[in-house]
Hints:
Blueprint: H1 3-6, E1 14-18, H2 24-32, E2 37-42, H3 53-62, E3 68-72, E4 85-91, H4 101-110, E5 112-123, H5 126-129, H6 132-141, E6 145-151, H7 160-165, E7 171-177
The structure holds S-adenosylmethionine.
Amino acid sequence: MPEAVFHICIKDSVFIDVxxxxxxxxIAVAKRNPQASVIGIDRWGAEYASFNKALCENNAKAEGVxxxxxxxxxxxxxxxxxGTFDAVVSNYVYHNIPGERQKYLLExxxxxxxxxxxxLHDIFSKSKYGGMQAFVQKLKDMxxxxxxxxxxxxxxxxxxxxxxxxxxxxxxxxxxxK
Length: 178
Ligand SMILES: C[S@@+](CC[C@H](N)C(=O)[O-])C[C@H]1O[C@@H](n2cnc3c(N)ncnc32)[C@H](O)[C@@H]1O
C-alpha cells in the first residue's frame, strides 16, 4: 500500500475495499489502521465462486480483526453517497467487468471524500482501459493531487516475467489524493 493511504489514518476513518473477494486487502488495511473501519464490498458472483461474505468474515476473525464489515455490492454502482469514505482501495477488480472501465474508477472515486486517498491496483493496459495517462491528467484537472500510476511489474512487486506468466502485464497502482 502506498504511504498516501496511511497518512490519513485518523480515528473514525472509514475505508472501502471495492471487490474485496476473500477480504484479504480489507483485512490487511484494517490491521494497519485499527482505529478505522473498513468496509469490503463484492458482487461474489459465479466467476469467483470460492469467495463469499462468510469467507471474508471468517478470515477477519482468523486474523483477529474486528474493524471490518463485508457486504454484497456492485463496483459499477456503489450503494454509498458521494464523499462517504476517507480512503478507497481495490485490487484486480475492474478489469473483470466489461464496459467503460474508467467510468468504474470514477464511480469509486465518487464515494471518496475530498482530501481522501485512493490506491487502486489493476491491469491498466490500453486494451482494457484506453489511455490511462490521459485519465491521470483528467483526475488532476478534476482537482486530485499527487496522482500517479505506479508500474507494479518492474520488480518491486513482481518481475516483468512473473507479470507475463500470470497474465498480469500492465498491472499498475493508481494512487492519489482526491
Ligand atoms: C481477481 S478477484 C480479486 C479479489 C480481491 N480484491 C483480491 O485481491 O484478492 C476479482 C474480484 O472482483 C469481484 N468483482 C467482479 N465484478 C464485480 C463487480 N461488478 N462488483 C463488485 N465486485 C466485483 C469478484 O467477485 C472478485 O472477488
